[in-house]
Amino acid sequence: RGWPVVGNLFQVRRERPELTFIEWAKDLGPVFSVKMLHKELVILSSFDAIYEALVIKGNSFSERPQKNFRSSVISDKYLNIGNSRANSTWRKLKKVCHKKIKMYDTGMKRIEVISTGMVKNLLGIFGSTTQKSFNPKEAIYNTVMNTITSLALGKTYSTEDEIFKKLVQFDQGLSTAFAITGRGAELDIFPWLRFFRKKTYKVIQDLVELRNQIWELIKEESSQEDQLLQGDEEDVRLVSALREALVEEGCEITEEHLRAVATIDVVFAGTATTSHTLCIYLNVISKHPNVQAKLQEEVDAIVGSERIVSLTDKRDMPYTQATLLELLRYSSVAPLGAPHMPLEDTVIQGKTIPAGFSVLINYYHLHHDEEFWKNPFEFEPERFLDEDGGLVSVSHPNRRHLMPFGAGPRVCMGEILAKTRIFLIIASLAQKFEI
Ligand code: HEM
């Protein structure tokens, strides 16, 4: 039960709304609704409810609600993949990005090369640090951001470069602007408030300005790099693939689409999530010497102390893979994912969710549900291993209950990229350092 106008908004923990929703699910069950300002939100918490919505009824749940004023301004009226309606342009843009980011043969090799470069850089920074303890957050963040620039633009940048500084500023600003309870949330409901809350609105206008400046710099950078391409050398940059799509698809894809995809779907979605996961990893591993010892034992046996860790080692390293899965579960860095919306009235676990309602998936709850997981707040890679120390199969209940990247048509576009980078970092750190 909420208050007039604001509904349940002030009852929800501003920084961690997913924790409030866990408490409410205890009384209200796995499918319940809350009122946040003018919006009725449905929260799904249990595996059965989430699986039914995302996978079994995935097609009707693959829409995104478009009622958020702040996102609408920043994404040019929802032109990016993550905020777009599930239309043919969304499908095409996601396909183009997948094809370039992914994942088949040469694509996978390229991700490995980029990630290995990033790992080397990070190990260099760690190795050159003389203090016994230091804060690795910035080094991790900058390195992850540079993997994204490698992928999108084919090169890395110094933290002093103008484009790099602007990317960081934009990415950090967006984290607040996209949060459901973050600063400026009131503008989503009463957009006219922007005429009175000028400071808050200015933050959003500044982000739009920054986005436009970044796009101009991206275009400039990529045309300079164009000139460096030799003869029939393959252009592997994501931004080039997007530009090709612009030409091929005629008027359906516009330059504004590309700007929204490059800045929001690639830079924003690809940086904070991965760097946050890695920071949590360092924190966790420093408190679990037993896990670290087992990782080191596996890396020593499979890779040795000199050779660079490769993706082909992965199949022989079940403990490292289990640690990666456990990290994704434990950290759940996208706790509520991105909102979904059914196009028609849809029944989930016997409850009807009306067409047009916003639906949030509580991934954090799914991954910490005390009725399913044993010791959900402990870090235990063993939950993903069988009795013989092998990785449990994808059909094992623990693997099925793990959905850090979502599932169904709206599954995360960067899943493979993120997992690859994190695997290589976990293994390489274990090979070289004691944390
Ligand atoms: C640890 C890293 C990451 C995590 C945990 C993560 C998690 C998620 C989640 C939970 C969703 C929402 C799924 C849903 O709608 O139910 C999502 C969507 C998305 N992610 Fe990620 N993500 C990560 C990394 C990345 C990277 C590296 C990229 C890009 C390079 C990326 C791009 C996207 C995009 C574009 C979407 C929207 C897809 C769509 O609406 O069709 N993510 N991600």
Automatic annotation (TrEMBL):
Q: How does it sit in the membrane?
A: Peripheral membrane protein
Q: Which residues bind heme?
A: C412
Which cell locations does it reside in? Answer: Endoplasmic reticulum membrane; Microsome membrane
Cofactors (names): heme
> Which of UniProt's keywords are assigned here?
Endoplasmic reticulum, Heme, Iron, Membrane, Metal-binding, Microsome, Monooxygenase, Oxidoreductase
GO biological-process terms attached to the record: hormone biosynthetic process; progesterone metabolic process
Q: Which GO terms describe its molecular function?
A: heme binding; iron ion binding; steroid 17-alpha-monooxygenase activity
Query: Has keyword Transport?
Result: no
What name appears for this protein in its UniProt entry?
Answer: Cytochrome P450
The record lists the lineage as: Eukaryota, Metazoa, Spiralia, Lophotrochozoa, Annelida
